[in-house]
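From the methods appendix. Each design record in this collection lists the tokenized structure first, followed by the designed amino acid sequence. Records were kept in a plain field format so they could be parsed without special tools. The example shown here is representative of the layout used throughout.

RECORD:
FOLD TOKENS (752 positions):
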């Protein structure tokens, strides 16, 4: 690629062909991610604002890399543009244009039936429904978005009459000046009225906003749009079905309900009226009262929702006057978010308790120190978010009075004890954390009656005196729980009680992610070895220092990520760890750390035990010696830190992308694979990394990033140009790397 000019690739075609979908696939492709460290995704709406788009791109880049390092990416970035207009292609001086075409008949039917049928088979060859379905499919004219939308609609309409009504609808032939396709208007017309309100509500989000499904469901429930919201299990299933149709969420016209929704953009504030019920806006760094003056016209406001299109860690400020006005002037408020204003929100006034209709309150990423007990007067509150309120040390003591509460998230706070009688919150479904107390009103039995789902972290498990209390929680029956973290105190001693407690905390068999920390037992429970965790995809075992053996990988056929850290009693890992090699084929990430006594990794007679391992990390294993597994064909990242007794040649897979070596014994490095992009070396390397060795190692590579630390004798080869090196960082004592001519680094951008 010519570095002197920007490469523009335009994807051209009518609306609904999948231009943005294709661009997203390219944007998230691994090859693209490897090639471009900084990427920016910007949606340009029909109301084109050059300043806003430019600022968005600039902010995305400046928050990704330091200023002195940025120009490399500005010159090398490929700009992908999706457009319906050939004129735009010409204006943008595109390097290449990719015109998308409509799907042919066979592919149209495959896509249509995928959405119309999904997990059921209601169509049979030559059946009436198939005949109707094929006619409807033909009316979609090969447009992917139309096929998905109509297919999703028909999935919910199972009868012959309903399919026929949709086939014969006059909407197919309607002509309209608006740009909504007939198939999409038809999909919207046949939605139940409550779903129309749900989708109209979505107009408060910007185009291409990255929806979080759980967040959206919480907002819909807060606005009482969902008739099944009071039925916990049914609600979860109904929501999943609804969100299958999310194709519609950004393409409808505002209907009669949509006129109540408003996005408070800087140039549109004057459009608010007494009819406005729902308001959103894109956060700025400094929010003054002037921006929200028009809000007071909407005195029956129900939603106040700040949004962020790009995830930056900026300290944002919200005027105290605005906060007080929100709490005192809008008694009908149901959804209130003050999240991500981390500069000045340290407390809330007691008047928050007067917002009797409030159902959703988000105070995440603020400097909140205390939550007033008046919050406990919000008897309709369903969602309370306090994530990353780092300074928050205590939850209100009367929290159990929030009888409608369904979602409580206080992850990454300073809270160290639970309020009493949390078990009274019978509607609570999502609880981010539970800290086991020593007394009846805060012990683990408070979780017994809660129908938990999603993920939960249960800590301070050493406070469980009797394993019977753990059994009473009956985690095995909580079928919607997907992630479980079990934690004892860091200074926990060896304990038979811990082993008995863990035995009683057996989760439901469909659990996906499990983490166990600071466990004091000398072995793992029976449910670890009887295939009860066969659906696990992520397993983390930390600081289980009294366990002398590891569970076999053969017990976890779907496991993708395994972390084993702080097992002080493990001396050797043998074939029993690998189990049946046919069961370890799913593993992609394997990390070992802080294994003080580990000396040997035995894997004799194992053929291709880890065919899909992409990341292997060994950190702080000072006694480990011998060989690393010889066959890792998919390895992309290898990290070896403080493993000074490993003496063999470095294992270098042909697919290796990143190699990190810190204080790594007496290894030889004769060459590196041509695929290597990132090389990090630190420690003495006194004997083996002479100029000849490292020159041979990188002579045929395409290294882009080099990091050296505390390598006093290391010299960098200067016999030829390093055409791919973009960044070099030198830390500590690297006495022989004092200076070098930049002429040898033609695209060099940063040295630190």
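DESIGN:
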């Amino acid at each position: 690629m010519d570095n002197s000019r920007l490469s523009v690739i335009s994807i051209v075609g009518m609306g609904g062909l999948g231009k943005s979908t294709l661009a997203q696939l390219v944007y998230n492709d691994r090859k693209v991610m490897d090639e471009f460290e900084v990427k920016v995704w910007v949606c340009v709406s029909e109301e084109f604002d050059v300043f806003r788009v430019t600022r968005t791109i600039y902010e995305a880049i400046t928050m990704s890399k330091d200023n002195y390092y940025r120009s490399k990416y500005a010159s090398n970035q490929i700009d992908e543009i999706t457009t319906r207009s050939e004129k735009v292609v010409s204006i943008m001086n595109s390097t290449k244009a990719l015109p998308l075409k409509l799907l042919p008949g066979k592919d149209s039917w495959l896509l249509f039936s995928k959405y119309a049928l999904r997990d059921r088979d209601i169509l049979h060859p030559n059946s009436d429904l198939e005949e109707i379905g094929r006619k409807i499919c033909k009316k979609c004219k090969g447009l992917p978005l139309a096929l998905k939308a109509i297919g999703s609609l028909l999935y919910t309409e199972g009868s012959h009459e309903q399919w026929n009504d949709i086939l014969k609808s006059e909407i197919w032939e309607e002509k309209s000046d608006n740009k909504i396709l007939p198939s999409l208007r038809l999909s919207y017309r046949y939605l139940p009225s409550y779903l129309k309100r749900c989708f109209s509500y979505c107009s408060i989000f910007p185009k291409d906003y990255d929806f979080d499904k759980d967040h959206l469901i919480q907002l819909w429930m807060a606005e009482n749009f969902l008739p099944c919201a009071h039925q916990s299990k049914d609600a979860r299933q109904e929501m999943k079905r609804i969100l299958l149709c999310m194709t519609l969420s950004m393409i409808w016209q505002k209907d009669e309900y949509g006129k109540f929704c408003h996005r408070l953009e800087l140039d549109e504030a004057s459009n608010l009226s007494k009819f406005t019920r729902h308001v959103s806006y894109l956060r700025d760094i400094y929010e003054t009262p002037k921006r929200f003056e028009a809000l007071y016209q909407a005195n029956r406001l129900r939603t106040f929702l700040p949004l962020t299109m790009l995830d930056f860690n900026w300290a944002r400020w919200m005027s105290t006057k605005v906060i007080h006005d929100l709490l005192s002037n809008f008694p009908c408020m149901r959804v209130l978010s003050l999240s991500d204003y981390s500069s000045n929100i340290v407390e809330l006034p007691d008047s928050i308790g007067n917002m009797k209709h409030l159902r959703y309150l988000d105070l995440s990423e603020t400097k909140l120190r205390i939550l007033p007990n008046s919050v406990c007067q919000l008897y309709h509150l369903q969602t309370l978010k306090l994530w990353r309120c780092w300074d928050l040390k205590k939850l209100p003591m009367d929290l159990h009075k929030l009888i409608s509460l369904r979602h409580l998230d206080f992850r990454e706070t300073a809270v160290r004890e639970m309020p009493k009688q949390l078990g009274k919150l019978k509607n609570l479904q999502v609880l981010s954390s539970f800290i086991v107390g020593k007394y009846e009103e805060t012990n683990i039995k408070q979780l017994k009656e809660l129908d938990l789902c999603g993920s939960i972290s249960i800590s301070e498990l050493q406070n469980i005196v009797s394993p019977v209390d753990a059994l009473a929680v009956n985690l095995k029956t909580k079928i919607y729980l997907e992630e479980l973290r079990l934690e004892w105190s860091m200074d926990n001693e060896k304990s038979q009680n811990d082993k008995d407690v863990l035995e009683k905390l057996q989760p439901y068999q469909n659990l996906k992610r499990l983490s166990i920390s600071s466990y004091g037992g000398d072995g793992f429970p029976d449910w670890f070895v009887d295939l009860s965790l066969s659906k696990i995809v992520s397993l983390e075992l930390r600081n289980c220092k009294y366990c002398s053996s590891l569970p076999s990988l053969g017990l976890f056929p779907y496991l993708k990520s395994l972390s084993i850290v702080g097992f002080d009693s493990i001396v050797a890992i043998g074939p029993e760890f690998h189990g049946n090699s046919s069961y370890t084929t799913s593993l992609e990430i394997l990390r070992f750390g802080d294994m003080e006594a580990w000396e040997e990794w035995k894997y004799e007679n194992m053929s291709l035990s880890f065919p899909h391992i992409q990341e292997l990390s060994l950190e702080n294993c000072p006694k480990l010696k011998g060989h690393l597994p010889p066959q890792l064909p998919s390895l992309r990242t290898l990290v070896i830190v403080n493993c000074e007794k490993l003496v063999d040649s470095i294992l270098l897979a042909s697919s290796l992308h990143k190699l990190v070596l810190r204080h790594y014994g007496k290894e030889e490095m004769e060459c590196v694979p041509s695929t290597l992009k990132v090389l990090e070396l630190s420690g003495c390397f006194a004997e083996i990394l002479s100029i000849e060795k490292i020159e041979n190692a990188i002579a045929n590579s395409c290294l882009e990033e080099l990091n050296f630390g505390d390598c006093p004798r290391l010299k960098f080869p200067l016999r030829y140009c390093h055409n791919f090196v973009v960044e070099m960082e030198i830390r500590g004592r690297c006495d022989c790397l004092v200076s070098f001519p930049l002429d040898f680094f033609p695209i060099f951008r940063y040295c630190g």
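APPENDIX NOTE: The chain has a mean pLDDT of 81.
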